Amino acid sequence: MSTVPANLFRRPQLTLMQILGYAVLALAAFVVVVAFIDGPRTFVQVVVIGFSNGALYALIALGYTMVYGIIELINFAHGDLFMLGSVLAAIFLEERLNQTSSSAKAWMLLAVVMIAVMALCAAFNVTIEKLAYRRLRNSPKLAPLITAVGVSFILQNIGIFMNGSAPHSRASVLPQSSWHVGAIDIRLKYIVVVLVTAPLLLLMTWIVQKTRIGKAMRATAQDRDASLLMGINVDKMISYTFALGGALAGAAGTMFVQVNGTTRYDAGFRLGLIAFTSAVLGGVGNLLGAVIGGVLIGLIQGLNDSGLGFFPGQKWTQTVLFGILIMMIIFRPGGIFGSHQQEKV
Amino acid sequence: MTSIDVTHPASRAAGRDPMLTVDDIHVYYGNIAAVKGISLTVFPGEIVTLIGGNGAGKSTTMRTISGLLKPKRGEVHFEGKRISGLKGHEVAERGIAQSPEGRRIFGRMTVTENLELGAFLRRDKGAIAADMDRVFELFPRLKERLVQKAGTLSGGEQQMLAMGRALMAEPRLLLLDEPSMGLAPVLVESVFETIKKVNEQGTTVLLVEQNALVALNIANHAYVLETGRIILEGPAKELAHNDEVRKAYLGED
């Protein structure tokens, strides 16, 4: 209702912002084209890696954005939940099931482990909400935020307990071979990540958009009292949201170990911030935005790491990514889609 | 304030058990008392209306009945069972639906989705579809807007949607908070026609209205609220002719 007058008001300013926006887009396109000319082979490989990482960021970003959508809390513990997922997956697959190389059996077990880790992370996230956030639901916003930071520390310490304080290298059961397309090598493991992630993202969209529970979750995100009047158990819907977010973090953790081959207790801090940047890029609370933001951040990271053309290279990747975060928060806090808000949960 | 001699409660009850009894509730927002001891009764099949000016405590009473607010004192009983203290969704499960003040439709969802959410507690798919058709019969305008986001509807259409959504719950008791708010006069009439029709089809209605004249016209029984208390009650027809009421709420000298 209020979007129409807001747009009318903003129109004169928007033109300047639009010009700036197009300028930034043109510059970005130029930089990307130069990078492509600089090294077409590397470029394609890097884009594949970018997509794969981006898909993982999207999984984590969804957890941030869904929780924000329903209780307006930036859940800073979410990255650490992802870390716990990665550690658990590695321990299950490598230490309990002794799978350290690629085989059909190992892939089956990987699938089983992933589902188990998703269930565990969902249960953790629901428990965290019940114990820590629920009682603060009507407190000032700062209280649950600080609590989330506290939960983050607790999870990191559980991570140290399970994984040790030093990074731990882990075996991967994904195929280590490459696909040769002409002169380009594409590592299969990146393709696998995309193939696993995409259905999860689709499933999530389906649950939120089409199912009875998904509709109730969206209703809860929009108007809690009105939802109660419809007979929707709001506490339950918030739990479901945390469960879905947790499951996605667990899936991301499982795949992350398989691709990157390490587990570390502080992985959630950096990855969490990157995923948070993705969520901000797509507009916090916007589901589709989180996915697009995740993929974009993955691509930017990949291209920057490659150092092609004008990209400053790996040393600068974090600067570039968090520079984007700061710019977005200053100039476009509503995300790249701005006020065109999609469904939030 | 004078109180008119109320028809003896027993005759209103006509041997029936009350459907809803609100017993001396006191409701606070923080330290501010919005309702200071309201008691009222709704019998099955009735249309009961609460009238009164701004800040009289009408909406607070409605929100308390629906379990969105907890009374500091007093109790609410529905069909013989205590419902004060239940959560909002549990009250809805008992068969009470509310079309709340300010409509509170789900603006980023479609008209269809809003109506589906109204039927959230029901599992009888066939009957839900039939009821949706019934809502479209009552409000043909909604049918033209099915896939539109509810937030883009006009105020009047949103009001229809809010009422349609409440009807979709197939409630035994329907709470309507200012259903005529923001509607064009022609529509006000049709909304009240609808309320009457719904009531005739067997739904008991508790109606909050600022538009006292129309409300008294269709109601069986009425309560007049002022600053969190009931100052008058009686059969709607009698209240409509009460000088006090006419002066205060119907704008007559």
Structure description:
Chain A has helices at residues 3-38, 40-71, 78-96, 104-133, 142-163, 188-210, 212-222, 224-229, 234-260, 267-282, 287-306, 317-331, and strands at 168-169, 178-181, 184-187, 262-263. By secondary structure, chain A is mostly helical. Chain A has a single domain (40-307, 312-331), classed as ABC transporter involved in vitamin B12 uptake, BtuC (Orthogonal Bundle). In chain A, helix 6 crosses helix 7 and helix 10 (267-282) packs parallel to helix 12. Mean pLDDT of chain A is 88; it is low at 1-7. Chain B is of the alpha/beta class and 253 residues long. Chain B has 11 helices and 10 strands. A 6-stranded mixed beta sheet of chain B has the order 6-7-8-3-9-10, with helices on both faces. In chain B, strand 4 and strand 5 (81-82) form a beta hairpin. The longest helix of chain B is centred in the last third of the chain and has 16 residues, at 185-200. In chain B, 46% of the residues are buried. The interface between A and B is medium-sized, with 22 and 29 residues.
Which characteristics define this entry?
heterodimer, A: 345 residues, ABC transporter involved in vitamin B12 uptake, BtuC, two-stranded antiparallel sheet, 12 helices, 4 strands, 3% strand, globular, disordered N terminus, B: alpha/beta, Rossmann fold, 4-stranded antiparallel sheet, 11 helices, 10 strands
Q: What oligomeric state is this? A: heterodimer
Largest sheet of chain B: 6 strands, mixed
Range of helix content of chain A: over 70%
Broad shape of chain B:
globular
What would the average pLDDT of chain A be, to the nearest integer? 88
Point out poorly predicted stretches of chain B. 1-8
Tell me the fraction of residues in β-strands of chain B, as a range. Answer: 15-25%
Strand order of the largest sheet of chain A: 1-4
- Note the run of SSEs of chain B as H and E: HEEEHEEHEHHHHEHEHEEHH
Shape of chain A: globular
Distance between the termini of chain A: 19 Å
By CATH, the architecture of chain A is named Orthogonal Bundle
